[in-house]
């Protein structure tokens, strides 16, 4: 399944043009969206995630028309927003349980299995009964990935996930992303070049709402 974006444009009511004729073709695996602050990354991520509308253009995810079928898209989408807030006074275990119920995993045994697997996968098993308010930045981000993975989505969008992380946590987070990017589309928005060069075999550089370059980061580095 591919994500195909064609001529997407978006101008905010105050006149800022955040997206200017953006076209991208994204295959399964990790896709890096690289650009400085204000480039339009969040605007693009929010539009793909059906959280905001575009003025023009189309987005297709497999057979789905993303802008016209937001409900169906949300069923196959996991989204980790840039400013990811956690409820401080519940545990990871409790909150994942809760979200699993919302996702429709109504069978208790099955839910236990799904939640336990995610806690292990994101390395939060030991800390599962701690309140999220006591988590480090890296742990919160990994919790965000666990939450985004509920329902086994075909498309995962992570917006600037490594920005506040120290090198050890960033490394751990990279490993987790590489693992979840094996069998689905993962779009990683970042202004950090090594996020892209370490993890992605496809990427785009975006600035001032325009796509400046698309390709394979290893090839791009050789060409520079
Ligand atoms: P990035 O995620 O790359 O930092 P954004 O998509 O957040 O870029 O922003 C792109 C441009 O659009 C910036 O100039 C930003 O200030 C502007 N912008 C973002 N959101 C809004 C909004 N809701 N209203 C007006 N301007 C916005
Ligand atoms: P980013 O770091 O991705 O550019 P911001 O921190 O600029 O994101 O944006 C955070 C929130 O503020 C978003 O909901 C965005 O839509 C909004 N926003 C950003 N820039 C503007 C702006 N110039 N006018 C109004 N809202 C904005």
Give me the secondary-structure topology.
Layout (H helix, E strand, L loop, with lengths): L2 E9 L5 E10 L2 E6 L6 H8 L7 E6 L2 E2 L4 H5 L2 E4 L11 H11 L5 H14 L15 H13 L5 E5 L7 H14 L4 E6 L2 H7 L2 E6 L2 E6 L1 H7 L1
Parallel strand pairs: 3-8, 3-9, 6-7, 7-8
Antiparallel strand pairs: 1-2, 1-4, 4-5, 9-10
Helix pairs in contact: 3-4, 5-6
The structure holds adenosine-5'-diphosphate (2 copies).
Overview of this protein structure:
- The protein has 224 residues and is an alpha/beta fold.
- The protein has eight helices and ten strands.
- It has helices spanning 41-48, 70-74, 92-102, 108-121, 137-149, 167-180, 193-199, 217-223, and strands at 3-11, 17-26, 29-34, 56-61, 64-65, 77-80, 155-159, 185-190, 202-207, 210-215.
- Strands 6-7-8-3-9-10 form a six-stranded mixed sheet, with helices on both faces. The protein has a four-stranded antiparallel sheet with strand order 2-1-4-5.
- Helix 5 (137-149) runs parallel beside helix 6 (167-180).
- The chain is globular and about 45 Å long.
- The model has no long low-confidence stretch (mean pLDDT 94).
- One adenosine-5'-diphosphate binds at residues 12, 14, 16, 18, 35, 37-43.
- One adenosine-5'-diphosphate is lined by residues 12, 14, 16, 18, 35, 37-43.
- This is ABC transporter ATP-binding protein.
- One of its GO terms (molecular function) is ATP hydrolysis activity.
- Residues 3-224 form the ABC transporter domain.
- Belongs to the ABC transporter superfamily.
- It comes from Hymenobacter elongatus.
